[in-house]
Amino acid sequence: DALGPLLDRRYMVVDSEGNFVSQRQAPRMALIRPKLAPTSLVLTATGMQKLAVPLSSRSSARRSVTVWADKLDAESMGRDPAEWLSEFLGLPCELLRFADEDVRHVDQRYAPNQSLVGFADGFPILLISEASLAALNARLASPVPMDRFRPNVVVNDSAAHAEDSWRQVRIGDVTVDIAKPCSRCTVPTVDQRTGEPGLEPMATLARYRTREHRVYFGQNCLHRDLGMIRVGDQIEVLHTQAAISFEQ
Question: Is the pLDDT of residue 57 over 90?
Fold first, then answer.
């Protein structure tokens, strides 16, 4: 839809001040397993009872929240999710949903067409190729899985970092513009199986994927139109240009 893949990045955890909470502040969040059921968002975690949050319910309760520099009025999902999350994470927090009437624009430096986004850091689509991950893992003592980087589009059968030169692709029915390389925070250092942070893979990426003191891996993307994308769709590269150089 207009915000990206349906239901993707539409729910968010906030603290008592209304600031978004991620694995940056609470790496234990990695141990929460969200799953979409036909009528609910289901959360599971070790030692906790399963929590089902109905997808169809709409709340009149609103909460002023902050996502980076953006202020929004999001829907509160009520007491049960708040208590469940607060108990597991060990801090007062609440589950919110992106309200239908909320509008959040992508950074206009990269989206002059007024593209929208939900609760994602900045862009509705993050694309990474399996070959790029393989190139990283070849440099690591212990390989890391793709979930460290949280992409919602994963490409196979390409060269490592081929996506650096892509500027527009078609995925299924949808034309996608490659807006900019994705600068990485510390979340990829969190082991998604244990919730424990470390140094890798960021220490290794910093040695060969750095530009202006920031580490980049994957591509932030914007969809031009609505349509369907499916696992197994062919990705057609429509436009390319010289890739940005990174320190080697």
Answer: no
